[in-house]
Design goal:
By secondary structure, the chain is mostly helical. It is 57% helix and 6% strand.
Length: 177
Amino acid sequence: MLVDMPYKLLNTFTSNIPIYFMTNLRREPGAFFFFLLISLVVTLSMSMLFRTIGAASRSLAQAMAPTAVIVLGVMIYAGFAVPKAYILGWSQWIYWINPLSYGFESLMISEFHGRSFECSGYVPSGSSYESVRGLQRVCSTVGSETGVDLVSGTNYLRVVYQYEAGNKWRRVKCAFT
């Protein structure tokens, strides 16, 4: 593990720095370094998961089958493809043991908390409703409020993903334990 650490650090920086700027995430130092920290923690966590599978297997072929199934489960139950609210009761344990779910939640909170986004569409909509203003219309984005032309990122996270801003660092702590 110690021998792999320089490679993992180099890989984290060379892969994630271009991704961060190409996806136009927050242009703030705190958000940028938090993104790198979460990326490194998730990389190390997933590496340990795969090392555990490898240690329990006798050959590479034996390790590949459970690894493929686990990678599929980890990606599906990270909270993006299937949000936490839609995960069936019998399979919620996958979300809670998943290192990607903790990293995804922390990154989403870092990116959306404290920001407001312009509304792109309103309800009711159409040419006959363009003069409607105030409490008579609402933004079509989930988490919006009646009569407000901006959508709060914090409200969006709370409604869509059930993420709370206070969980940002708690999830990072969980990944280390």
